[in-house]
Structure formats: structure tokens, C-alpha cells
């Protein structure tokens, strides 16, 4: 007889007894029927894997965009990504998410993922950071094979393309200081003003730009700027700087160059040179995408598709490389691998495994809006 009162637990049988003991007076006899076991919770379904019903799980917005591109024949069905760190510090847990996205998406679609060091600022970059970044990515379990590149590999090509834009009257040499450029740029509510040097002739701009390269101008005296639209509601399109004069020894090219490309000029063109199909970026670069596309369209070269996703933000955690560097340099912590830091080498020293970090990044998932993960 089944227990008529579900609020009363069944009495367990004594150890070694085949039958339950007689029930005390006033209590019903325990049920001989086996109780149903609570089924275990279902395992989480990986992105794109079949759901329990047999239907594929809906992909996230990045994978959905790639599937759409493949179905339309864009890029010939290829998927080629890249992870582009700047070698100016050690990687942290926030970078781990980007690594998982870049390498993971490429692997899922059967394509390669490049490792490219965006080394366009010699004042802050070091070979030691290059080696540390390689070690961290390998420790996480990813391999880029022979696909390791540097933005500095393309310095000459970037320079030649800059001259092409000058000849197309889409770039000019500007003598305004950095402070004046910021003032002329305007604000979100006030349109920018054109530089007094915006209408120099092609010949004068080519001559000045070549003199910049030859080292005839002091640091900060001139810049090369794109000629786009000083009234654009997108501040990134208000004649952005493409090159600045900076005398600093580069970790790979030495003192061969004294002008260096800005990130927005080097990034998209490096993607194009390497044949990248999908440039997966931090959400902070969403407003830079029109500039990314504009440069490539004017040059008439291969144009990857840039897709942005929210970075990983953790509560009570410093994930700014600038502040992490400051703590290291000022002796607040023992070094980049201090176990109190969220750097990958620090987390490794603290005892975290690469599997746990990869799993954490996968569970956080992808989003188009910034959020804070409580830890």
C-alpha cells in the first residue's frame, strides 16, 4: 500500500533486514513500492550542438552571421579569424574570452586563426611580452601553427597605401598639434572644424609625408590624416590621424622608422593582407567599424567583416592593462604573475587550470551589450 500522506517520509529498512520493521502504532506501514529517483539536471548544450529533441541549438549572433555568410557564398565559404594582442603587457582573463572566441570559432568552421601582434607603438612594446603572450595562449590549449605575424611586417605596405590615399586626395599632412586636433575635432553636439592644412596639394602632401619618413620633422610636429568628413556624427570619421612622428626603438625594426601607423590605420589593412574573413572585435570598436570599412573601400582591397562582442567584465577585478602595468611598475604586486592578479600567468600560479578558464569563458557566452559578471 502506498503512503497516503506524502508529507510523511517512508521509514527506511534496518541494515541487514529484508523486510521493513513493523510500523509504530498510529503510523501507516511503509510502502514497499520503489520510490522514483529525481533525474539529474541536463548537461548544458554546447553552441550549435543538437538539442535533446534532435534539433540543432540556435547559434549565437557571431556564429549565425558566419553561417549566413557561408550560405551566401561570401568569402567563398572560408572562415579565417585572428587574435591580435598588443605586446605591451601580459594577457589577463578578459583576453582569454577573446582567445576562446577567435580560435574557437575558426576551429568550429574548419578554418585557421592567426596570431598577430599589433606592434605599432614602440614606446610600450617589448619582446618579453611577445614571448609571454605565446606561452599564455599555448597554456590555454590553442595552437596557431605557422600563422604568426606582426603588424610591423606590413609597415612598408602600409606606407605605400598611405601614399595612394594622398594621390587620391583622401589623406593630407597636418601641422596641428595633438591638442589642436582634439579641439578642431569637435564634440558629439558640436561639429568639427577643418584643419587649415586640409587643402594642400597632392604634390605638397607627398613631399611632406616623405620628409616625415626621412626624419626631417621633430616628434609631434606633423601627422598624416585621412580626409573624410569633419561634420560626421561619428567622431572617428572626422579626419582621423593615420601616422604620427615618434622616435623610439622598435622591438623588431629598430630605428628604421620614425613614423608609425595608428591602430585604426594598421588594423584593418593587416586583416586584409592576411586574408581574414571575420574580424571579431571588442564592442568598443563598434563605432570604429565605419572607418575600418572606409579605408579598405578606398584602397580597393579585400574587406573582412568586422563583428563586435562585449568584453568580459568581472566584479571587484582590475582588467585594465594600463592599471595592471602601473601596479607592477610601482611594486604594489610582486610581478605580472602575482597570484592576486587576473593575469593568466597569475591565475596559473594560483592553481587555476586551463580547462577551468576555457569552461568559464564558454559559460559566460557572447553578448552585444556590456555587463558585469559577479565573482
UniProtKB/TrEMBL annotation:
<dbReference type="InterPro" id="IPR050132">
    <property type="entry name" value="Gln/Glu-tRNA_Ligase"/>
</dbReference>
<keyword id="KW-0067">ATP-binding</keyword>
<dbReference type="InterPro" id="IPR004514">
    <property type="entry name" value="Gln-tRNA-synth"/>
</dbReference>
<dbReference type="GO" id="GO:0004819">
    <property type="term" value="F:glutamine-tRNA ligase activity"/>
</dbReference>
<dbReference type="InterPro" id="IPR000924">
    <property type="entry name" value="Glu/Gln-tRNA-synth"/>
</dbReference>
<comment type="similarity">
    <text>Belongs to the class-I aminoacyl-tRNA synthetase family.</text>
</comment>
<feature type="compositionally biased region" description="Pro residues">
    <location>
        <begin position="39"/>
        <end position="59"/>
    </location>
</feature>
<protein>
    <recommendedName>
        <fullName>Glutamine--tRNA ligase</fullName>
        <ecNumber>6.1.1.18</ecNumber>
    </recommendedName>
</protein>
<dbReference type="GO" id="GO:0005829">
    <property type="term" value="C:cytosol"/>
</dbReference>
<dbReference type="GO" id="GO:0006425">
    <property type="term" value="P:glutaminyl-tRNA aminoacylation"/>
</dbReference>
<keyword id="KW-0648">Protein biosynthesis</keyword>
<dbReference type="Pfam" id="PF00749">
    <property type="entry name" value="tRNA-synt_1c"/>
</dbReference>
<dbReference type="GO" id="GO:0005524">
    <property type="term" value="F:ATP binding"/>
</dbReference>
<dbReference type="InterPro" id="IPR020058">
    <property type="entry name" value="Glu/Gln-tRNA-synth_Ib_cat-dom"/>
</dbReference>
<keyword id="KW-0030">Aminoacyl-tRNA synthetase</keyword>
<keyword id="KW-0547">Nucleotide-binding</keyword>
<feature type="region of interest" description="Disordered">
    <location>
        <begin position="1"/>
        <end position="60"/>
    </location>
</feature>
<keyword id="KW-0436">Ligase</keyword>
<feature type="domain" description="Glutamyl/glutaminyl-tRNA synthetase class Ib catalytic">
    <location>
        <begin position="79"/>
        <end position="370"/>
    </location>
</feature>
<dbReference type="InterPro" id="IPR014729">
    <property type="entry name" value="Rossmann-like_a/b/a_fold"/>
</dbReference>
